[in-house]
Design brief:
Blueprint (H helix, E strand, L loop, with lengths): L1 H7 L4 H13 L4 H8 L3 H13 L3 E8 L2 E8 L5 H34 L3 E6 H15 L6 E6 L5 H17 L3 E5 L5 H7 L4 E5 L7 E5 L2 E6 L5 E6 L1 H21 L21
Parallel strand pairs: 4-5, 5-6
Antiparallel strand pairs: 1-2, 3-9, 4-7, 7-8, 8-9
Helix pairs in contact: 2-3, 2-4, 3-4, 6-7
Length: 274
């Protein structure tokens, strides 16, 4: 019980053994202390030095015959409060150090935002690998946006995206998708997915572009389907701004068209984009 509480105060297992042994035997030399504490004599001096530095042990030289012998004594347990006060002052000093370097560390973090990576994923397996990575990194507050989406590609891709977006809906935030065609099964299938809104705007982009969490993905479905994934905050913000402009435009020119209602945890009731 006492040992576990001393451990919570920050003492090591060896320090606890030696301190408790000294409390019991009183003033002593290293040999009896090591024996009582059940630690090796080669380590007991190091432990005693640490306890002395913490104010929990005192020592004095005593003449024994022709030689001087160092003896140790456990400090009164009330001094444990002094030990805690020292720790508190040390923590306060460390907090001031952290406060002084935080601006520099934050500046380095901001610089990292300007860095980027670009990876090309080829073929169906490559696109699937990219989407797996995205699924692992998104959270419940991360929105997913896509523009230039078309139904005119191999059916396996449409089927794959429908299933993947259903998985994404369980983990991520709301999704908004701008199609370049409408009145298709693919359009209808995506519109039925939870937290997903779809709209129509002809020829918004030469390729499908997907954006989420500082990642921009440009997809092509030609002879060799591929996905260029760019991870960069500035690039993401630029594409997101372009998407928001197109989304607003789609709402203005399609007021009479269906931008399908969705049942979403982010909305209190079924909602139309108009």
């Amino acid at each position: 019980m006492v040992a576990s509480k001393l451990k919570e105060l920050g003492l090591t297992k060896g320090e606890i053994k030696v301190y408790l042994a000294l409390l019991k035997i009183g003033i002593s030399t290293k040999g009896p202390i090591a024996s009582k504490a059940k630690v090796s004599e080669s380590k007991v001096y190091e432990i005693l030095d640490r306890l002395t530095a913490k104010g929990l042990v005192s020592n004095a030289m005593k003449k024994k015959g022709a030689r001087q012998v160092k003896q140790f004594k456990a400090a009164n347990p009330i001094l444990l409060k002094d030990f805690l006060n020292k720790k508190k002052r040390a923590i306060e000093k460390e907090e001031k150090i952290v406060d002084s370097i935080l601006p520099m560390l934050q500046a380095q973090l901001t610089a990292q935002d300007c860095e980027y990576s670009a990876v090309i994923y080829e073929g169906f397996k490559g696109i699937r690998t990219n989407n797996k990575e995205v699924l692992e990194m998104i959270g419940k507050d991360d929105e997913w946006m896509a523009m230039g989406v078309s139904s005119s590609k191999a059916k396996q891709y449409n089927a794959f995206w429908v299933q993947w977006l259903k998985q994404r809906a369980k983990r991520g935030g709301p999704a908004r998708i701008l199609f370049v065609d409408k009145a298709t099964k693919y359009y209808q299938d995506l519109s039925k997915i939870k937290n997903t809104q779809v709209g129509y705007l002809k020829s918004v982009a030469p390729s499908a572009v997907v954006m989420t969490k500082n990642r921009v993905m440009i997809l092509t479905y030609g002879d060799t389907p591929a996905c260029l994934a760019i991870t960069n905050k500035q690039v993401y913000e630029s594409f997101k701004g372009f998407f928001e402009s197109l989304w607003s435009l789609a709402k203005k020119i399609n007021r009479h068209l269906l931008l399908l209602p969705v049942k979403s945890a982010y909305f209190n009731k079924e909602k139309l984009i108009h």
